Amino acid sequence: MTAQSCITERSMPFWCVGSPLSDPFGGAVLNRMDSLETARILAWAGKEGYIEATGFHDDDLVPWDPQQPEDDLDPNSACAKKLREIKAILDEGGVKVNSAVCSLHGHPMFRNGGICNPDAEIRRMARLKVERALRMGQFLGARHYIYWVARDGFEVPVVTQWTQVYEWLADGLNHVRDYIRDKGMTNYVGATVEPKPNEPRGQMFLPTSGHAAGFILGRLRDPDFWGVNPELLQHESMALMNAVMTVSYLCSLKKLKFLHFGSQIKAQFDNDFPPLVGPEGLKETVFMFWALKQLGWRGVCEFDCHMLRAEATPDKATECRKQFIVDCVTALAMALDLADRIEAPAPGLSQSTADLASIRQLCKLTSPNIVRK
């Protein structure tokens, strides 16, 4: 990244590269990749200068056994051994860890929620799994913990315990901060909430960045430690929010910790397209980075997307994943370059004229001939 860029580092997470590309209508296109092989691809990307960091869900790296919630603490366990191998590979590639996430959506136990599950025993298991993910992040040097809303949501309002769900949510997130402090995990500079309006649940308890920021400021004991990592364009676009407004609002509250980045068709399911890919979103993406530059924000851009299912190549599984990384970082560089072309509008222009002028700058167009001869 250039010295003047608003993006200080590019982070490509394990879940993006290792995705087997299944969807609700079809099984995996690629074989599920072992986390060691995914780490090697990320290390390659680090050595080539494409990325500086990565992120992970705990389940991306090692399997979880609810009967052994502290297996990572045994240095002779398969879990601890694999984590050491992953760390060695990332270190050799010069790849840091930006984020650690606890997967509270994959195991059937959490089908009705994780830290907001109405069953107290499942909430206890979710807490143990979160603690394990935090320890994994400590070992790998993660700088942020992410609470993705996962399955903490509802479909049927009449059976949802509305007097309790936000108490459970505050308890779960406050415990994250307490555990980090009590265990002396100084690698964590902060934690974030990643909101989402729906999918996998019909509705989520924290659907947008505004909900997340309000909850942090109103309900958490250490709001300064917490921020938001909006997924743009995807999650906010699913709720018809605009990325420029989202980042500007979060910056005004000093709550924009870092970005999750991809592309999306508004009001659809979670497309998770690679950045700039797809039929819409170019202008919104470019002006998002333009706004961040105007606001003086600088931080990490962490990709949160996957390659198009149609372009996965099963017999070249490593090569197509590497190309996906190249495409993502190329798109980010293009968006930043395009944002740099936009100048402050000349005084006295109407809003529409100023907008059209900025589009000409973005596209490097000369003034069009609008008079027919």
TrEMBL record:
This is Xylose isomerase. GO terms for molecular function: metal ion binding; xylose isomerase activity. Transmembrane segments: none annotated. The keyword DNA damage does not apply. It catalyses: alpha-D-xylose = alpha-D-xylulofuranose. It is found in: Cytoplasm. Its EC number is 5.3.1.5. Its main location: cytoplasm. Homotetramer. Belongs to the xylose isomerase family. It comes from Oligosphaera ethanolica. It comes from the Bacteria. InterPro entries: Xyl_isomerase-like_sf, Xyl_isomerase-like_TIM-brl, Xylose_isomerase. Pfam families: AP_endonuc_2 (PF01261).
